[in-house]
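Worked problem 6 (solution included).
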Amino acid sequence: MAGDYYRILGLPRNATEAEIKAAYRKLALKFHPDRNQGNKEAEERFKEASAAYQVLSDSQKRSLYDQYGEAGVSAGAAGGAGAGGFGGFRAAGDFGDIFGDIFENFLGGTGGGGRQARRGVDLKYETSISLEDAFHGTQVTVEYDRHASCAKCGGSGAKPGSSPKRCAQCRGAGRVQFSQGFFMMTQTCPRCHGEGAVIETPCKDCSGSGRVRQRTHRTIRVPAGITDGATLRIQGAGEAGGHGTAAGDLYVQVSVRSHPRFERTEDDLYYSMRLSFPRAALGCAAEVPTIDGDPATIKIAPGTQDGTTLRIRERGMPKLHGRGRGDLFVKIKVDVPTHLSPRQKEILEDFARTLDGEREYPEPPASPQAGIFKKIFGGE
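Solution. The predicted structure is:
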């Protein structure tokens, strides 16, 4: 096959073994006949690349080729007649590794066979709980449809009293080989579809699938302190796998509903307390509701301002999978009355006068214009 083998692979003459292998693999993937059906030019390019790799990947053949060209390789191979293969050459030692990688790209893998442990599909369910339930922990019952393992055949898919038979076409491997020119190709067995076994007498309940559709009820424990949006995983509660293989999991996403009194940030709770102006000014003891139902008493210091935040330690949410609780923060909102009785107005006016009497308001400095007006219109 004419042509410079280095040029065919796009390599310099001092290319390493790894570079030769990588260059060939790239060309083989690009020009392989399975990817270029009916393309004669691609087929020729594939043959050229294969011939070049067969020589350059073998240190002895490469040495002969570097010294004498293709004629040196042909002479060196004369003693190997009868080796078989396309065009009289034999595959290099790691040709199988190269084509194992190529076939894996074409066929999704060449390893194994027979019944694989194809796990069932995972399912997702959403539920909501109150903040009190999140505080104490609770149980929720979920109801959903799923494919479960057939009880009659035990998930095998075969009629009770019978069993799946080994596939005669692939002999239980799940894959079959066929020749493509001088290559041996591998593909999923068309008779058993990769199972490695066939069901000759299917179960009537599941029609041979090993699964039946059913309505499922399951009670799930929700731990105390769970946060909004958290997901619980129930192993094996998803879709059953085919023919008795492992079931998938059920993922339950929990949302915590908003509360009319409290706002939550992680493990802490926030409560807004409205306080009248006199109580804020004079100070007092105030009762604060808590999420656990046991009110707490806090001391309001005299002169507490609007927006002041007080903390009550360990009265928030429990820490999920931990010890202790978050804190409860109380934000003070001082109420300003909008409707006053005549008596209340009178009292507040007296109070305002006492405040005004205690304050000194300095006279603003006289402006030059004020002096001119005094001269014109009189005055001191």
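Discussion: The mean pLDDT is 80.
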